[in-house]
Hints:
By secondary structure, chain A is an alpha+beta fold. Chain A is built from eleven helices and 18 strands. By secondary structure, chain B is mainly alpha-helical.
Amino acid sequence: MQTAISFIHVSRHFGEVKAVDDISLDIFDGEFFTLLGPSGSGKTTSLRMVAGFDRPSQGEIFLHGVNVSQLPPYERAVNTVFQDYALFPHMTVADNISYGLMIKKVPKAERLRRADEMLEMVRLPNLGGRKPSQLSGGQRQRVALARALINKPPVLLLDEPLGALDLKLRQQMQIELKTIQQQVGITFVYVTHDQEEALTMSDRLAVFNHGKIEQVGSPAEIYERPATAFVAGFVGISNLISGSAAQAISGSDEAFAVRPEKIHLSNDENPVPEGMLATDGVVREVIYLGMYTRYIVELDLGGELTVAHQNLETTSMDVLAARNQRVRLLWNRSHMRPIGD
Amino acid sequence: MQALKNASLSQRISNFLFLRPRLFLALLLLPPVFWLGVVYLGSLLTLLVQSFYYLDGFTGQVVRKFTLITYGELLTRSNLDIIGRTAGMAATVTLAAVLLAFPLAYYTTKHASPRSKAILYLSVMLPLWSSYLVRVYAWKLILSKEGIVSWFFNQLSLSWLLEGILQLPAIGGPSLSISPIGLFVVFVYVWLPYMVLPIQAALERVPGSLLEASEDLGANSLRTFLHITLPLAFPGVVAGSIFTFSLTLGDFIVPSVLGNSSFFIGQAVLSHQGTSGNIPLAAALTTVPMAIMAVYLIIARKLGAFEAL
């Protein structure tokens, strides 16, 4: 597979702060690649260094084999969709979309034709004459996407582009973005702090923390085999057990994680089946979420575990009655994930 | 109801007005409407009316009869000279102020650290805290033959250059302190803050991401400036130029301190309404800057200066 972007020992320091701290990463051609992490973890700074708005303090960035570390943004073959969309308020939608072509001195007729094509692609036909201020948030988002794609960049950078949209629209745009990416077949590098979004859209993702990359992998790998305690906690709910509790449950003092949906709730008098691990506790909190219920169980051994249970046959009345009940938690040994530091 | 009975007076007034929003609005707007409508627009109207009277040259009395005679007088050679000189100076000062203010405002809003931003803001504002008269007289000394500017040229052995500049027709004079060029320098100095502040305010409202988006789409810094920064800051430039242009058009102190014997509109107004008692001509001259500003605003609007507001 062809490498689209390479970070080679890249750092970016702002004074004393190491926003990005010695990361190395390869992103391949045609991938939907996500940089996931909490705010201040260095994911946006990394993206900005690819775009050229920031330059590495150390290390190098290659775009399709060309060292671009010191090139200005306007000489890099990437385009960006900004978090605040950054549409030019004094221009019409069509002029916004065809800005890149205008800069390339493409004739006006050709420009307008291609702007119309792009509007067609993002499903906003006939809106070319409007000003950005006359559009809704979702429409602006699509215009920003169309503007960034019109130059047919080999790599598109997206900086939390759905952050300002409401949940329904966000979920719809996630699917649309993914469809457009497959349609145009170019590399998307996507920054988000939303783990669900990252899991939904990405072919692969990198989890950032404190300017470093904790883990790179496919969504399934990241979710099922988190490499560090941070990844286990940031992607999904952590349920980390360590020390003496881990010793008592599994027979080894190595810390481990278990996903909430893998845990069965049972009466504390029931026997423990073959191949299962068990521990007892008291239900402290019941959170009824419609589709499923989340139980927070305080363990007798200390610490707590979150259990998610689909409301297949239970009603809200049933689940809420579980509060303060003694329960036995059971899970298959194979769902237990040992976590290094 | 019990609560209402025990309410204090201020609370009862609040409750009364809360239920009558129109009355509240009327009370709120009464003072500014009185000020604008009566004191300000009223006196402007009186001024306009005066400009349609004329001075009887024989009796020296103002004749209160509607006529265009006084406006006709504006078209005499000497009055046209005054108007042309003033408008020319105002335009040149405005242009120079834009050229000086824009880079400063751009740096302050887009590149300066918060600390140096505060210092820059302060240094732009600071001169406005001292009296304008004091500053103009200070410039008189700075620009005089024995002043620091001449001394500086002397030290650099460039006195010949200064002499040469002062010998230029139309802008020269016996010394910098008695010449159109000195006048221009002082005008630019006193009005510069009025240009910097609106441009700064306009640039402050241009998000950095717009400039990044432009560069991202292939535009270098110059084209980004021309296509994005300048159009978006244009309302600020227009606002600033309204200040510098109209302040220069109406000023009579700077020309009387630093100018030569050729009058500016402000000085002409002063002398017509003072010594010669020709209030109608003074009033007519005063309408000239207003007319010029009106034309200027119409052109600015045609150019789309207010579209990005």
